[in-house]
Design goal:
- This protein has 20 helices and 24 strands.
- The protein has 607 residues and is α/β, with parallel strands linked by helices.
- Strand 7 and strand 8 form a beta hairpin.
- Helix 8 runs antiparallel to helix 16 and helix 10 runs antiparallel to helix 18.
- It binds 2-deoxy-2-amino glucitol-6-phosphate.
- The site of 2-deoxy-2-amino glucitol-6-phosphate has 15 residues, from helix 10.
Length: 607
Amino acid sequence: MCGIMGYVGSQQAGPILVDGLKRLEYRGYDSAGIAVNNGTIRVQKAEGKIANLQALLEKDALDGCIGIGHTRWATHGAPTDANAHPHADPSGEFVVVHNGIIENFQAIRDELAAAGAEFSSETDSEVLAHLVAREYDGDLVAAVRKTVALCEGAYAMVVISQREPEKIVAVRKISPLVIGLGEGETYLASDIPAVLHRTRDFLIIEDDEMVIVTAEGARVETIEGDPVVREVTHIDWDAEQAEKGGYDHFMLKEIHEQPTVIAETLQGRLDEDGTVWLEDVEFDDEYIADLTGVWITACGTAYHAGLIGQEIFRRVLRLPTNVEYAHELRYADPIIGPRELMIAISQSGETADTLAAARIAPDHGSRMLAITNVVGSTLSRYADDIFYTRAGPEISVASTKAYIAMLIAQYLLALRLGAARGTVDSELAQRVAHGLHRMPGAIEEVLSREHEAVAVAERIVDADDVYFIGRGLDYAIAMEGSLKLKEISYLHSEAMPAGELKHGTLALITDGVPVVVVLTQRAVYDKTISAVQEVKARGGMIIAVAYDTDTEIEKYAELVMRIPDMDDLLAPVAAVVPLQLLAYHVARLRGHDIDQPRNLAKSVTVE
Ligand code: AGP
């Protein structure tokens, strides 16, 4: 997610803005800029690190006691100087920074262009500056309110204007915004760490609220203009805790961000009737109808996301679909043809093995679609089509929110491809759309049961080995749960299809050995219970992930982590969360460095 800063007071704004942006660097970004008003608003911005911006400011500092700043995590348009924020309208009198997505920006941009507007960037954000300028009629707050009414999406936007030089006007629609209250000065930021060293008193802005900031303080209103009384929140975190949003580790923060990530990855891409809109996917229905197969390739957790995709595409598209480890596929001389689609999945978009495997596609005349979290990543530049997940920067080496976003991507692709192939009827499309739109709430519910994962963690923290089993989609989730546990707690773990246990590994199941069973696929529930009974008969300890409505599981499981009842096809999105929490709490109890596990890197850019 982008970083936002604002300041108005008696000090020079520039240094305060840059300092605040630097304190938001941990969020990840690819360009930065500030705008300062001293009667004339001036902007400095640069691609890359904040040091590049500082180099510009050393040559040409911006003078003024009111300004805004931004670190950009690219979503629309590659990381360049021109695409960096802040953005101004052509007159330069209205300047905006923005975090989030303006879904209908293209229609707005087209309308403005038809009226003669010229743009200096590829971004969705720039249209906001043009709109505020167009709507301005002597009242900046009213102009911003009119602008917001024209925009669809999830965002935070912050505006300054030469016309009303004493105020900053900001709006929050999902992307976070806080106001820091100083003595004769006021701060605005997308996250508390940016200004926690300057004040501990904050107004937390909620969704669909507007705030008018001056040196004397801040006035909060609803988007419609009704006054809001907002209590001051006193923050007593230290700086490190603040970067983690009060969580002890980025991993836990990112696990808890997953409802928002799902909402943002779905934003503007899925209608209630199941119609899918994919802005960076170019292939047409004719190409889709002609497909004879799908290949998915990735590594690690991304591979486990591909395991889910494999099952979904097989079920929903009735298309031969194979997921292959990229480090295997790259040397396998696979038989891939022009009528097969290659999907490469990579959070970083820089994993060497995945890049190598993805490049097999064009050699065989096959299109390659990238599912990645980083705009402008190497994988995105190789791809014919791109699905950008909107998980924001994932700091913890152990991938959680990016993984969930990869699942959402594949559900949407299945609907899009299935509609074109006639294998997804309106009932299925609506059912999946309904379930996905309700998923953020379901995940919030699962997160509220974190104590269940803690209880399991306390039971297995001293185990030597933990096994994960499941069938179909549940097996794919078991694989991810096992990897999460291994990579951060260093507790040996292994996952396998439930039916495979009796073909060898059962020899390892003795008294008290923990076996985690994932039980969301009702069609094979009884078959999976057979494996559970094999474990119980050897004294193994059963731990289950099961629906709230499962009344059988208590007969077998010593501990159960529950998820709300839902469509089996969508259950993986919820079922993985207890396993993420389990891994986290075992690692916490074992006292490990959770965000930076030994021997591992966030992006494996070597073979
Ligand atoms: C996941 O928790 C690991 N950090 C690792 O398996 C990771 O998923 C894998 O290296 C692939 O990374 P990518 O998604 O950036 O390609």
